[in-house]
Amino acid sequence: MSLRSPLARAPRARRIGAGAVTALAAVSLAACTSNTPSTENEDASGQQAQNVVANDEPGDEVVIGFSAPAADHGWMGSITTSAKKAAEQYSDVDLRVAEGTNDVNLQISQVETFINDGVDAIVLLPFDGAAMTPVAMKAMEAGIPVINVDREFDDPNAARVTVLGDNYGMGVSAGTYICSQLEGQSDAVVAEIAGIDSLPLTQDRSQGFEDALKSCGLDVDNRVAADFTVEGGERAASNLLQAAPKIDAIWNHDDDQGVGVLAAIQNANRDEFFMVGGAGSANAMRSIKEGGSVLQATVIYPSTQAADGIKLARLLAQEKALGDLVEVEVPREVQLYAPVVTKENVDQFLPTAFES
């Protein structure tokens, strides 16, 4: 079978819906701009505006297959939970969730089952993007659009849409915030507790952090790596605190491992610095809101990416688009922002935070 373009539509027998351009709020991919069709009219530029209908109005039923790794930490657990909650909002979505697994071969077989069942779209957070690329390509060749979440495939043609967090942007946001808090302190000591150093996402986060600190004349004076677990975070933080008798600011890449990091800080009786977390867990945000902790802020890495994937899969299957855009097709890539959460804005982000 010849390779289909990732921009190509599914075969006619697989097409669903009227294909009208729809109104969907770009930030949440959920809110609609109108509940009733509008008449065609001419906008200020002289162009004809297309008729629009609300994205959330029920259409033809679509079957969406979903597969993600095992929920072995809070962020990953929230990925599947948020995907299910997104699907529950729609009476026209039949979501088929495969059991979370860190076995690549099992995840491949899950996707093959979706293909054989003839689902209308597949939302896939791969345990291993490279290993999952061939089966994702197989789905695309079968006319089933694949929405790739978080961990990219080796070949962009294996997905119709890719939904990503911004790892480099996380580092930039963390570094920029620390610069703002240490303004004028050119001798400030900045430390970093990274995740798994071999992962590109960790490397991207660290590079963004380094680049942002350079803009205010700071650098990373002490750095250790953990493993995104509570135990690893506590061990890495203990080593850091022993090696650095003076610290002014710490960026910890991940709020799950941050539980251990904060335990190590408490055990060492250190509080001369402030800390910025990463990913945006609910317990971290609650601590920020309450105050009284070294944890002063955290940087979002959305655990709602799969929920956005479900919404985009529904739009693709029903031949709809993002109504806030002029284009009549769903974009190839959606990269989510990495905002800094502080005491001032924490209430805005708590509702979508994950539990560590």
Short descriptors:
single chain, 356 residues, Rossmann fold, 2 domains, six-stranded mixed sheet, 18% strand, elongated
Any overview of this molecule?
This protein is of the alpha/beta class and about 350 residues long. The chain has two domains: about 60-165 and about 305-315, Rossmann fold, CATH 3.40.50.2300; about 165-300, Response regulator (Rossmann fold). Helix content is about 35%, strand content about 20%. The protein contains ten helices and 16 strands. It has helices at about 75-90, 105-115, 130-140, 165-180, 200-215, 230-245, 255-265, 280-290, 305-315, 345-350, and strands at about 20-25, 40, 50, 55, 60-65, 95, 120-125, 145-150, 160-165, 190-195, 220-225, 250, 275-280, 295-300, 335, 340. The strands form four sheets. Strands 6-5-7-8-9-15 form a six-stranded parallel beta sheet, with helices on both faces. Strands 11-10-12-13-14-16 form a six-stranded mixed beta sheet, with helices on both faces. It has a two-stranded parallel ribbon with strand order 1-4. Helix 1 runs parallel beside helix 9 and helix 2 packs parallel to helix 3. The longest helix has 15 residues, at about 75-90. The chain is elongated. It starts with about 20 loop residues before the first strand and ends in a 7-residue tail after the last helix. Residues about 1-55 have low confidence and may be disordered.
